[in-house]
Structure formats: C-alpha cells, structure tokens
Amino acid sequence: MEAQVHKVQEEEEVLFIQTQALKIDKEELSLKQQEKEDTTNNNNNNKDSPPPPPLYEVEAILGYEFKNKHLLEEAFTHSTYGAEDDLSYEQLEYLGDAVLGLLVAKEQFFSYPNLKPNFLTLLR
Predict the structure, then answer these.
(1) Which of 7, 88, 97, 107 could form a Cys-Cys staple with 79, CB 3.0–4.6 A?
(2) Where is this region: Disordered (predicted)?
(3) So what's the pLDDT on residue 124?
(4) Residue 74 lies in a domain
(5) Distance of alpha carbon 64 from the chain centroid
(6) How far is 117 from 106, CA to CA, in rounded Å?
(7) Which of 25, 28, 82, 75 is nearest to 51 (CA)?
(8) pLDDT tens digit string along 83-104?
(9) Domain-located, residue 11
C-alpha cells in the first residue's frame, strides 16, 4: 500500500513539474513575442533615420577596394537599423563561420591523420 501511495506522490510531483515547465515555456514565448514586436517597432522608427555614412573610409583603412560595395554595406549593418532590403551582417556572419569551420576541419584532418574522428571533433 505504501508503495502505491509513494508512486502516486511521485506521479503528482512529475505532473506538477511538467505543469510548471509549461507555464515557464508559455511565459518565455510571450516575452519573445514582445521582444519581436519591440524590435519591429524599433525597425519602423529607424526607417526615418539618416542613411549610413559611406564606407570608403573602411576601404582606405584596409587598403582594399571592394568590388561589391553592397556586401560591405551589409557587413556593417545591424539588423535593428531597419535598412531597406533587410540588410544585416547576420547572414554573412553565418557564412563566415561555416567557412572558418571548414578551414579548421581541413587543417586538423591533414595535420593529425591518425587521430580518430571523435578526438578531431573535440579538437575543433
């Protein structure tokens, strides 16, 4: 009998924890939706902002003239700026991270040819 009572108590505790987790998830979702609305409102407010300054100074500092000025502008534009065409550095950052990951993996693969894959993964 005690075992059954103990099992019921455990089940009740599990249900209580799951219910609390659902409430937390719902609150987090509500907060995320509010943040998204705030960001959208900020983006709408930023559309009246002046255009960003020309990036020729960046080229002068680097000593390199970019062929595609649009990519340079995108690389220096934050997503909250609200620029037309939804310019943001985030896609370029994603691509750059992938390229760096490939280069690191290639270097490690050829530098440590006898190392097992799981250790290569840890090394990366």
Answers:
(1) 88
(2) 28-54
(3) 78
(4) no
(5) 29
(6) 12
(7) 82
(8) 566 778 888 899 999 999 999 9
(9) yes
